[in-house]
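Long-time lurker, first post. I've been practising inverse folding by hand and with some scripts of my own, and I keep getting stuck on stretches where the structure tokens seem ambiguous. Below is the full token string for one chain I'm working on. Before anyone asks, I'm not after the true native sequence, just a reasonable design that respects the backbone. If someone could post their per-position residues I'd love to compare against what I wrote down in my notebook.
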């Protein structure tokens, strides 16, 4: 049974959408949520990074040290080549920072649904990695031209950690700034309860904006 054409869209955010929202201030928050709502209503969306992520995962899985990344720009449509060429050096540097290729394996992650008050947020890491000593990391990739802000990184890492039992048990959340090859982890001084309170407030405001945008 399908919903009526004019049925209200329930508030919902992906991890990327929500963390981009918390990074905004003032009126830009409202326009951003309005844009997310329209995109949800139209069901349009395209991920230009899909082939890039596949190449990076292949290099980890097959211990090939960047050979898949080196060739992926030649496999995509010409319009995406400048993007892939801009991403490759940083991604390769991060891959090399993991150590000997044979010492790292790809680990399967699962998506989770977080509830921030009444707002569902989809938690979807790009993949996991497991080191030879057994410890694991759930990896979310940041592709933007600008580095992730402290707020966006903190929100991403907190929400991943909050649902790690479902995503990749006993793993540590990592946000990788692909263009710069830098891995961000939760700072030791962070108090999870304070972050939770902050995000709950942001989620309540998100829901309110979503409703007024109807």
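-- Answer (accepted) --
I ran through it position by position. Result:
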């Amino acid at each position: 049974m399908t919903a009526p054409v004019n049925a209200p869209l329930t508030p919902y955010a992906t991890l990327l959408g929500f963390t981009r929202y918390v990074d905004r201030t003032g009126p830009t928050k409202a326009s951003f949520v309005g844009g997310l709502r329209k995109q949800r209503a139209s069901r349009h969306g395209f991920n230009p990074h899909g082939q890039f992520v596949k190449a990076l995962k292949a290099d980890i899985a097959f211990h090939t040290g960047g050979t898949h990344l080196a060739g992926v720009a030649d496999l995509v449509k010409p319009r995406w080549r400048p993007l892939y060429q801009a991403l490759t050096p940083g991604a390769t540097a991060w891959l090399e920072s993991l150590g000997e290729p044979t010492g790292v394996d790809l680990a399967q992650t699962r998506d989770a649904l977080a509830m921030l008050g009444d707002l569902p947020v989809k938690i979807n890491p790009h993949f996991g990695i497991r080191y030879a000593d057994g410890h694991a990391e759930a990896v979310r990739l940041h592709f933007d031209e600008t580095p992730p802000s402290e707020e966006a990184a903190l929100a991403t890492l907190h929400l991943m950690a909050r649902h790690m039992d479902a995503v990749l048990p006993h793993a540590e959340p990592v946000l990788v700034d692909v263009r710069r090859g830098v891995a961000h982890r939760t700072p030791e001084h962070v108090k999870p309860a304070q972050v939770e309170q902050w995000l709950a407030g942001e989620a309540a405001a998100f829901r309110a904006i979503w409703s007024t945008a109807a």
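A couple of notes from the structure itself: The CA atoms of residues 13 and 121 lie 5 Å apart. The radius of gyration is 18 Å. Happy to go over any region you disagree with.
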